[in-house]
Write a structure and sequence with these properties.
The chain is 88% helix and 0% strand. It is mainly alpha-helical. The model has no long low-confidence stretch (mean pLDDT 94).
Length: 115
């Protein structure tokens, strides 16, 4: 097996190991539960739609009004008050932090060879 194939195999094994962690399993369950909770899902869809509209305006050089900024804050607060949305957000944050730690360890390994 060549060096690149070995790296790809180890990457696949790492992915499988990640998938067996409680952090990943909690993240996937929270996502599933969110998708099957129509009220929470609707809140997130509305927030995403509002964010896309605001992003489009900003990309076009149109400044958001105070009312639009306030509406965004209100929508974000409404979303976070929903228990399922909060649970999903927390699980996503933990998983992303975990992945950042893994990436940092990979970079650490690379730097140790570069010395």
């Amino acid at each position: 097996m060549g060096q690149l194939e070995e790296i790809m195999q180890k990457s696949s094994e790492l992915g499988k190991s990640i998938a067996h962690t409680t952090i990943y399993q909690d993240y996937k369950k929270a996502e599933y539960d969110l998708l099957h909770n129509s009220e929470a899902r609707k809140l997130i869809e509305n927030l995403q739609k509002m964010k896309q509209e605001h992003h489009g305006k900003q990309m076009a050089g149109i400044e958001l009004s105070k009312e639009e900024q306030k509406a965004m804050e209100d929508m974000e607060n409404l979303c976070i008050k929903d228990p399922q949305v909060l649970l999903t957000n927390n699980a996503n944050t933990k998983f992303q932090e975990f992945m950042e730690q893994i990436s940092a360890k990979i970079k650490e390994g690379i730097k140790s060879v570069d010395k």
